[in-house]
Amino acid sequence: xxxxxxxxxTKAVLSAFDIENKSTRYDSVYGGETLLNRALIALSxxxxxxxxxxxxxxxxxxxxSSIQNIRKRLNLNYTFLxxxxxxxxxxxxxxxVALWNEPFLMFELNCLYHASLFESIQNSNEQDSRSPALFxxxxxxxxxxxxxxxxxxxxxxxxxFQSHGELTKIVINDHRAKFANIFSKKNNLSDNQNEKKYxxxxxxxCRKENIDVLPPSSSIKDLRHHFxxxxxxxxxxxxxxxxxxxxxxxxxxxxxxxxxKIAFKEISGEFSKKYNSILSKPLxxxxxxxxxxxxxxxxxxxxxxxxxxLLLMIDSYWMLVLSGFTWQMAAVLxxxxxxxxxxxxxxxxxxxxxxxxxxxxxxxFQAICLxxxxxxxxxxxxxILIVFFLTFVWIIQAVLYEKKFMxxxxxxSRQVKHKDFLSRLGNDSALIRxxxxxxxxxxxxWRAVLYFxxxxxxxxxxxxxxxMTVGWIMGIFLYIQIGTLRRPSTAKxxxxxxxx
Length: 500
Hints:
Helix content is 49%, strand content 15%. It has helices at residues 35-45, 60-67, 89-96, 115-123, 208-211, 220-229, 254-263, 270-290, 294-311, 317-343, 349-377, 382-409, 414-425, 430-439, 444-455, 460-485, 495-498, and strands spanning 11-15, 29-30, 33-34, 50-56, 77-83, 104-108, 111-113, 133-143, 146-149, 169-173, 176-179, 197-206, 234-238, 243-245. The radius of gyration is 27 Å and the shape is elongated.
C-alpha cells in the first residue's frame, strides 16, 4: 500500500473489546497464546513499532498481565486507550492518533493473526495512499459456483477459507471496495450472484485525516462501513498470508486444523512427514497447551539422545532395542520443537540454530558411546578407535564447512538448503532421478529408523561399522551439495524461506 520510496507502516490500532461473538474475546487462548498476544507478536515481527490497544475501562490490568508472558518477544511499544460505554469511540480514537501523520493499521481481535499477514501488508502496493484501504486476499474469490483459487495458490492456505461464510466479502466497483453482503437498491448496485467476490482480512489502513470527518462510531467495523458507504474504501491485496477468522461457536477441530497447517513442516524427510508426524501432532499440541517453548522441547529431544546413548552401556539385548526406540522418539521430538514454534509464533533465527546445535551434540555423544562400547567388546581392538577418530574428524570438518557456507549463503534451515540443492539438480537424466531416490535414505529421519532396525540384530559392532560408513558417505555428500549450491546460477533465497 505504500510505494517503495516510502517507509514501512510502523503504527497500529487494535480493538480488544468483548464483541458480540463471545467466542472471540481478546483473551481467548488458541495454541497456547491469546488472540491479543498473537496479534502483538505478529505485528512486532512485521516491523510495527507502536500499538494502541483500545479496551473497556477496567480491563487494562488483565491485559497487561497477559502481555507480560510475551514481553521479551515483543520489539514494540504499546499504550492503552480505556473508555466506558458513555465515552465516544471515534472521539477517543481521534485523540489517540492526533499526533500520527503517517498511515496506520486498524483491526479488531476476532482473528488469529500470523506475522505473514502483516509482512504481506508491508510488501503490498497501493497507489492511492491517501485513501483508506481494506486488505483482501488476491489469490481466491467466490461466486455462485463456489470458491475459485488462482493456479499459483498454495494448498495449505485453503484452510483459511474452511468456513468462508464467516468471512467478509467485497466486490470491486471502480477500484473501490463494496461489501457484498450488504448490497441493496439504496446502493444503486444489483446483487449480481455471478459477480466475483473477494475475501477481506478485516484489516484496514487509514490516516488521521480519514477519520477526522466521520460521524460517531462504536467500533472499527463501523468505520469500515462508513468508508464503504462514502465510496472511500479502496482495496489493497495480500498473498501467501495466514489469518483465520473465529466464527461463533467454532467446531472442535476448526482452529486446530488451521494451526496444524501452519505447523506442519513440509520441507523434511518423507518418513518424518508420513510417520513421525502421526506422533508429533498430538505431542506438539499438548506441549503448546502446557506452555512449553520450542527450545525446551529441543533440550528434551537432546536428553532423549543422551539417554539412548547411555543405554548402549548396558549389556542387554532389550536395552539396545530400547536405545533404538529412544532415538526414534528423539526424532519425533525434533519435529515437535519446530511445530510448537510455528503453533505459538516462536519462529526465530536463534531457535533454528539452537535446534541444529542440540541435534549435532546429541549425535556426537551417541557416536562416542557406541565407539566406547564396541572398543570394550572387541577386547580393546585399536582399529575401532582409529576408524572412529578418522570418521569423527571427517564429519566435524564437513559440518564446520557446511555451517560456514550456510552462514554466508543466509541459510538457517538445513532442510531449505537441501531443497535448493534438489531443485538445482533438476530431473534431466535417469541418473539424477536414481540419485534422488537413494539420497532420501541418508536423511536424519531415515538414519534414526535404520538405527532402530539395526538394534534388533543385537550387534553393536554391526551398528558401529554401518554408521561409520554412513558418516563418510554423508561427508562426501555435503561437499557435493555445497559445491553444487556454490555455482553462480544458484537462485537467491528469500528471508522467509530460510526460516521454514
